[in-house]
Amino acid sequence: MPQEKLVSLFSQQPCWMIKPLATAMGYSVPSTRRFLGETGYYSSFTHNGKWYTLQTIPHFDKDGIWFFDVIGFSRAGSLTNTLINLIVRSRAGMTAEQLGIKLRSRCHSVLVQLYRQHKIQRQKQGRSYIYLAMNPSTQALQLQALEGKSVSSPKLPAEIAVLILAEFIRHPDFSFEELAKATARQRRIVLGANQIEDLFAQHGLKKTTLIAVPRP
């Protein structure tokens, strides 16, 4: 079976370029691509996506990045998707230098292109730019963290505060950390337990204030 041969080749060598792989398989390049698609694969975000590995091989870090020697793979896929993902998930945005160190790649030109395409935002800080999420709510929280201001500042988006309080009404036994995670999942934003605690303090709320009906 071609898939068995494919898996066997990747067990011998975890990363392949398509032409050597097709030669080792004894099939054409289009057929080999089809076998990869049927088995499940990642293409590298480095080297213009020319390297392939099977989905079962990478051991991704917390940011979804895995390197085999100098070849980088990402759960997000391409370099552009990986950059956007890292920026959106960052607490206070990231510089081109920080992203370059993380991805072991020069990212400046791609970041400028993404900014011009309105896929990310940026803010000047000293001689560098801090790249931020395009989503206004996420961006506001990143700017707040960047500026070092209290999370209880009025700059915390009202829509996020409403979501937090609504989540607490639904789950009155949740800890601040659980409320942060639940709200962050809804809007795909970065939110910390300390922000929830400060929001409650800002409005004079206690953990028992909003409990209307106790759970059985």
Give a written overview of the molecule.
- By secondary structure, the chain is α+β, with helices and mostly antiparallel strands.
- The protein folds into 3 domains: 2-54, Arc Repressor Mutant, subunit A (Orthogonal Bundle); 78-134, Arc Repressor Mutant, subunit A (Orthogonal Bundle); 135-216, no CATH class.
- Helix content is 49%, strand content 13%.
- The protein is built from 10 helices and 8 strands.
- The strands form 3 sheets. A 3-stranded antiparallel β-sheet has the order 1-3-2. Strands 6-8-7 form a 3-stranded antiparallel β-sheet. Strands 4-5 form a two-stranded antiparallel ribbon.
- β2 (41-43) and β3 (51-54) form a beta hairpin.
- The longest helix has 13 residues, at 158-170.
- The radius of gyration is 22 Å and the shape is elongated.
- It starts with a helix and ends in a 14-residue tail after the last helix.
- The model is unreliable at 149-155 and 209-216 (pLDDT under 50).
Key terms for this structure?
single chain, 216 residues, alpha+beta, Arc Repressor Mutant, subunit A, 3 domains, three-stranded antiparallel β-sheet, 49% helix
Strand content: 5-15%
Q: Which regions contain 5 or more consecutive residues with pLDDT less than 50?
A: 149-155, 209-216
Strand order of the largest sheet: 1-3-2
Helix-strand sequence: HEHHEEEEHEHHEEHHHH
